[in-house]
Amino acid sequence: MIRIDLKFGKITPDEAREMQYKLSLDLAVYRVFLNGYSKYGYVVFDNSKLPKEKLLEMLKPFEPEVISEKELTPQELIESSLSWKNTIAV
Amino acid sequence: MEEITEGVPSGEREFGELTKRVRDLIEYPEISEEEFNELLTKARGGYGGPLPHKTWSLCPETRKVVPAVVWEKDGKVWITKKCPEGMITDVYYEDAEMYKRFEEWKYDFKIKSYNVENTGVNCPFDCGLCPRHRSHTNLLNIVLTNRCNLSCWYCFPGYEEALFKFGGEVKLAKFEEIAKMFSFEHTVQIGGFRGEYSTPENLYVLTYNNGKAEWTRVTKFLRRKHSGEIMVIKTRTGREIRTTPEHKFFIYENGKIVKKRADELNVEDELILLWNLETDEREEFEINLLEAFRSLPEEEKEKIYVRGISTLDLLPLKEEYGDIIYHWKKSDSMPLSAFYKLGITEGEFRLGRDATSNELPSKLRITPEFAKLIGYFVSDGNYSNKDLRITVGHKDVEKEIISILNFLNLPYSILEWEGKAKQIVVGSRLMRLVFKYVLGIPEGAPNKRLPKNFLNFPVEAKIALLSGLFNGDGYVVRGDKVLHMGYASVSKGLIRDMLYLLASLGIFARVYMVPKEKMNGANHDLYKIYIAGTDLVKLVEMLDLREGHRKKLNNIGDRKPSKVKKVSDFYIDTISEIKVENYEGYVYDLEVENESHSFVASDGILVSNCFFYAKEGQPIYEPTLEQIRMMLRNAKKEQPIGANAVQFTGGEPTLRDDLIEIIKIAKEEGYDHVQLNTDGIRFAFEPELVKKIREAGVNTLYLSYDGMTPKTNWKNHWEIPLIFENVRKAGGPGIVLVPTTIRNVNDHELGAIINFGLNHLDIVRGVNFQPISLVGRVPKKERQRFRITIPGAIKKIEEQTNGAIAKEDWYPIPTAGHIARFFEAFAGKRYYMTSHFGCGAATYVFLDEDRVIPISRFLDVEGFVEFLESKVEEIEKWKTLGKLQKLKLGAEIFLKFKSFYDEKYAPKSFDVLKIIREAFTHGTYEALGQFHYKTLFLGMMHFMDEYNYDVERVERCVIHYAMPDGRIVPFCTFNVIPELYRDKVQAQFSYSWEEWKALHPDWEYSKDKYVRTREFIEKMKESELYRKTYIDIKNYFG
Question: Which of the residues A44, B119, B354, B724 has the least number of beta carbons within 10 Å of its own beta carbon?
Fold first, then answer.
């Protein structure tokens, strides 16, 4: 599993939402967030089922730039989602 | 007395019967795009606020998130949005006055932890919980399994047809005809319907495989009884199909293929149909007449002789027939009936008939000449009681038919009467039997069909058959801009056969129908096939047409391709009409092997296969104990307030063998309230299990209970008496009855359900009505018919309880939340119920001797809650207060409570004030437990669907699902957008069928299914327990 963080050259909020929906349908994708306002996004996916190149090709119309990439295991993803690891400061 | 439905409960038959009559309908207002835009401009956003109110919603088909307006008209509140698929309006709240009253109690909150890293700006696609979410988890749902003990299914009427391949032979056959080959030895119940099925060995149907039409194996052939509506779907190119309303079709939409139920289809939807069919290339096709004649009527068999038998050993027949066998041998001829007793299946013989010299070979080849003769007969022939007759209207046709008959060595004569068309009489009684019984060409023009196995004919024979047909009843239409070839018949079946015949030759044709009303003196509708464009060129090149046709088709010129969108062997066609008919009888369906789960039926229309047996062979989702513990802990540790109540759901959670362990894990993780969302059927038959789950820590059985009769409560009407008895014996858990409330289905029984709960107050804690959430694509007329909202249900309850429980007695969830929070504070727990005010409603009713008294009748609830809110900080410190401080605060609260309390209307049979005083002054939460035995909690939770979806409600949802990937998701996104949440995460975390079977080698899917037997129903009906449960009960609202 890998996580890639992206910056987009051009993407509107509606486009971001639609593309996020489309990517979310894919069983290989575990997390995806595309922010059309900040032009930032990230995707966590199983690259053995969805090659990175194919993912980037899908995002091509939005001029994506990969700003970081890291590998993680499914367990690490779950751990990072737990409530007590994500508290908002008061 | 209601008809008994035995088998695995499913509800489809009951639903069909219940929905025959429409008692009332909500008329949805029409609103134009301009009016919508105007409302949107005026509407304000932000939680609550006056109407019109701006929010965001979801489009059912395109899944776009779009602005929506919540607005008021005619005393009701509506939600409207503009989707790419059109303007969509649904009723949001049936009582604007109640909406506004409830809105005053809105209460906002903010969680301080999250589970997904995003801003929530793409809500509801950002769920997890995202940092934007506004309510902590009041009730955590965990799906324990996708296995289920109940079922749902949809079918074709018996007379509908499909293209089948059986034993290598292709034929267009009715489902009821194919059904005769099977014994339906297996039973099944799906969604309330009892049915049967067989598992064919060698039966295939056509399926869609990336645009190619391919044969796929039928793994199950099913049937069940149906009484009710059938949908009739017609397309622009004249195709037609009939199915039950639930049957799914493949629709071409925005470049994708999606599925839709028959009753969701709209005119202009695009179906996928077959136009090209590749059949096995055969050089010849023979019919074994000796085998085929076995099915002749006995009196016909008696008159047929088998010749060429002189070398056969006839001695085995001597005992039965005597010395005549020697005569047979000498004359080289014996009766067919006797021949069969020899058991000979191979060999070349000749067949003749009494008193005639004409013979046929026992293996009859379908040559082009013979096929053409068949074509002429189908077009213009009829049976007399002795022979075949073909009417001829053209000299060249007459000449050709005679030539064929001479070639085939068939006897014939010509009949001519003045003023009537000439007839050629084919004087072979044997051939008459062949046409009628072996080729199966029916009598009568409206019944005409092509020979049963026409698709197995060699190509030349098929072409000759077509030539005979078009030379007989075909015609050419030629005008300045028009050129096509057509064929007319009053037999719809014949036209269907011809479409398949043409498809097998790669020719596309259209069909249209001329109603009999438009033709003077006509008794039948007329069906016309027509072929034009490049398909016409292809056809003309193939056929051997008579002179008249050839003259008209001379200089055919360049033709254009037909204006249909083709996808390899299929094409896209628009629906032109949808009607409904009634049908009683067997309906059928198939389960096929192919991954696309599709097959071609009727006039070549692609439909979905059956998903009965709740996806046997599909992945099984059952989170492990470790995953369950993680999910529980994840919600428990939310900030600032963790979850304290969990509901285990499914599928059917009681199917899990490790259920007790799971419950214990929930208690270990600190959950005070553990609920099981169940149909309760296992508890009816396993009293020990009830005791075990109670001891393990289940507080509440959240029990399906949709009505008071076997029809309205198909799920567990017959099992409820046993469930109740076993719960009583085990001393718990408490039961909350959960009726899914549907207008025109069970909305007439809401008062009776409350009455039922009151009669079983020792074990029933509450009734939680759930107005229906309409799953999938639901046409507007269906939504108008079935939709009911919280105020609608409340109104029905007021009517059905004769005003004992009135509209004013209900409060929004935030109010009930204030009260719950207050009581939880005594127990040292923190608790908020900050759902959107439109999501639910609640009240408590007290049973005082024979009087039902809602709490609002003797307590100013709103006043008291306002007071509690002013004391909230102090109350939340209750557990840490010293004894004197508790006494002081308790006394203050009690005195205030007394001021809101009206003794005149309060219950007389127990002292509410005393219980409250003891609770507040002594701080004993347990004292309040006495209320349980005298009160019934009544709740309403309206879960949304795509039509009334309001993102503002989702943001405040308090009922969440935990997922094994670490996310926690609101109920109405988990279930309304299953492709992103429920179904997706279950697919990601499921065991494949093979993995599951390897882990559970003794498990069989069929064993999950509960089968209700007739015997059980009869026994329950007569039982004392049934009587005590349903019949010998008081009517508190009489």
Answer: B354
